[in-house]
Amino acid sequence: MIDEKVKKQDKSAEKSKENSPRGGARMVPLCNSLQGELDKPLSARVAQLRQLRNLTLSELSERTNFPISRLEDIETGLETWLSATDRQMLARALAVDPPVLQEVEVKPRLEPSDDPVRYQAILDDITTSILTGARELSCPQCGNTMRCRIQEGLDIDEQPIYFAKAFCQKCPFTLK
Ligand SMILES: [Zn+2]
Fold first, then answer.
1. Ion ligand 1 neighbours, Cβ < 5 Å
2. Of the ranges 1-10, 86-95, 105-114, 141-150, the best mean pLDDT one
3. Could you tell me the distance, in angstroms and rounded to a whole number, from the CA of residue 97 to the centre of ligand 1?
């Protein structure tokens, strides 16, 4: 009985220990105890969140249906960005909002001619992200921050239709 109580206290002490937000980075609000103490990049953040949630790799694998080897790739930084669907799944398993992962993802810098299929997948992901609320994403060509917005229009049947727009502040990349 007593042992258990001591354990619990230790845990909460550990959580409140590292409370220095780094460089005042913009954080998406999540549970207060986590705010301001999340690691960068994605690899470290996923590992950190997994540990905060007390999940082993195999437990996280069960919750996400990602093979353990893929989770290892993410935690070692071999995989640096996620598709919208995968991001949602991983975020849910770690009990955070998807932007918490997305804000530290790094998209590969790819020319359209290098790999058209993959490039289109990246554009589709950016489009989905913008339409679901992202406003600052990294440019697929240079990695700098892009300005993103939703433009509303009407389709041929006068139904409202939404377009994702993004333009890079450093290079000529635009999504239109
Ligand atoms: Zn750019």
1. 139, 141-142, 144, 168, 170-171, 173
2. 86-95
3. 26
